[in-house]
Amino acid sequence: MARRLAIVSATRHFALRRNECLMSFDPPSAPFHRSLAARLRSWFFTGLVVFGPVAVTAYIAWWAIDTVDSWVKPWFPQSLSPDAYLPFHVPGFGVVIALVGVTLLGFLTANIIGRSLVRLSEAMLDRTPLVRGVYKGLKQIFETVFSQSGTQFRKVGLVEFPVKGSWSIVFVSSPPGEVVASALPGQKPMISVFMPCTPNPTTGFFFYIPADEVIELPISADDAAKLIMSAGLIQPAGQAALAAMAEAAKLEKAPAG
C-alpha cells in the first residue's frame, strides 16, 4: 500500500513539474510574436514614408513632362526629334524645346520690335469679343504672380478669424484700388488678404481688412502653404514664434484692466 501511494505521489509530482515547464516556455512566445509584428509594421511604415513622397513626386514629374511633350511634338519637325534616330523614347525633349522657346520669346519681347508685335497682338485681341476679357484677366494674374519685384502673396500674416480669440493664416495681397478704397468705410489703411482653406489652399476667402489688424509672420509663403495643407502637422521653422506673436496680439487687444 505504501509503495502504491509513493508511485501515485511521484506521478503527480512529475505531472506538476511538466506543467510548470510548459507554462514557463509558453509566455515568451507571445511577446516574441508581438515584437516581430511590431517591428514589421514599423519597417513597413518607415519604407512607406520614404517611398511615398518619392513615388508621388516622380509620377507628377513624369506626367508633367509627358504632357508638355505631347503639346510640343506635333509642332516640331519629326526629323529633328531624337526618337527618329534612337531605338528608344527620349522623354523631356519637348520640355527643353518649350523652355528654349519661352526664353526666346521673352528675349524678343524685350526688344523694340518684339514690344511692337506684342502691342499689335493685344490690339487685335482687344477687338475680339469674349476673348479680350479672358486675355486681360489672365495677363494681370500672370504679371502679378511671376513679377520679380512684386510682394503680392509673398507675405504671410495672422488675422483674428472666425471668432474673437481665434487666429487664421492669410496671404497678404495688395492695397485696394482707388474705386474699392473710396467705397470702404473708415479712415484706416486697408489691405487685401486671401485666407486659404485646408487641405486645398486654392480655395478660400478673399477680403479687405485694416492693415493694423494683420500680424505679419516671419515665414515664407511655401512654409505657410505646407502648414495649411497638412492641417498643422508640418510645422515651419519659424513656428515657434507664431504662438508667441499670437499671444502678444491677444494681450495688446485685451482691454486694460
- Annotated CATH architecture of the domain at 155-253: Roll
Can you list the strand order of the major beta sheet?
4-3-2-1-5
Return the string of H and E elements.
HHHHEEHEEEHH
Q: Tell me the major beta sheet.
A: 5 strands, antiparallel
Question: Span from first to last CA?
Answer: 98 Å
Number of strands: 5
Report the portion of residues in β strands. Answer: 5-15%
Which CATH first-tier class of the domain at 155-253 would you pick?
Mainly Beta
- General shape: flat
Assembly level: single chain
Radius of gyration: 34 Å
Tally of helical runs: 7
- The overall pLDDT average reads 75
Uncertain runs with pLDDT below 50, 5 residues or more? none
Q: SS-based structural class?
A: alpha+beta
CATH topology of the domain at 155-253: SH3 type barrels
Helicity, in percent?
A: 55-70%
Q: Can you summarize this structure?
A:
The protein is α+β, with helices and mostly antiparallel strands. The chain contains 7 helices and 5 strands. β1 (155-160) and β2 form a beta hairpin.
Defining key terms:
five-stranded antiparallel sheet, SH3 type barrels, 58% helix
What does this structure look like?
- By secondary structure, this protein is of the alpha+beta class.
- The chain is 58% helix and 11% strand.
- The chain has a domain at 155-253: Roll (SH3 type barrels), CATH 2.30.30.
- It has helices at 2-72, 93-109, 112-126, 131-145, 178-183, 221-229, 239-253, and strands at 155-160, 167-172, 190-196, 204-210, 215-217.
- The protein has a five-stranded antiparallel beta sheet, covered by helices on one side.
- The longest helix has 71 residues, at 2-72.
- The mean pLDDT is 75.
